[in-house]
Specification:
single chain; 160 residues; alpha/beta; five-stranded mixed sheet; three-stranded antiparallel sheet
Length: 160
């Protein structure tokens, strides 16, 4: 008979297979007070097998959110995610707790310049699938629909 509680294994960060499968988008937008801020959206593409059921995808994306330091729903204040973004020249890397791997983000000069100037980006993790081929209109529709169902998690990622 078990007489003591087992200590859970420490949370390990996402592996390279999960990171390379993610769909990512970056854009410049404004914050609630009208200041320019960089935005990042991470989503999982639609599944191709039974192991990629919607709840399995949502579980993977919650793991991503936890590995970033914990994200919040749309109703609370944004958690500060210090040191998650690293700008090296014209490249931006998103780092995860518990993982030696990072995610190179898609960028363009205006977005990278805004991130370097402000030192932060609104980070959005979607729990529902979104294809990597989604255009701006589809991404906008995804972002508009998901908060009502509590399917987006938010944080404020910062450079070191």
């Amino acid at each position: 008979m078990l007489t003591r509680a087992l200590t859970p294994a420490p949370l390990s960060g996402p592996g390279p297979c999960l990171l390379v499968s993610l769909s990512t988008w970056t854009w410049s937008g404004t914050d609630p007070v009208g200041q320019d801020v960089a935005h990042i959206l991470l989503a999982h593409p639609p599944g191709r097998s039974g192991r990629d059921a919607p709840e399995a995808i949502a579980s993977r994306m919650r793991h991503i959110a936890a590995s970033l330091g914990g994200l919040a729903g749309s109703r609370g204040s944004l958690p500060e995610l210090d040191g998650r973004l690293h700008v090296v020249g014209d490249r931006v890397l998103l780092k995860f707790h518990g993982s030696r791997y990072g995610l190179r983000l898609p960028m363009y000069p205006g977005w990278t310049s805004l991130l370097a100037r402000r030192g932060r980006a609104v980070l959005i993790v979607g729990l529902d699938p979104l294809p990597q081929s989604a255009d701006a209109a589809r991404v906008d529709a995804y972002i508009d629909a998901a908060p009502a169902a509590g399917r987006l998690l938010f944080g404020l990622a910062r450079t070191p």
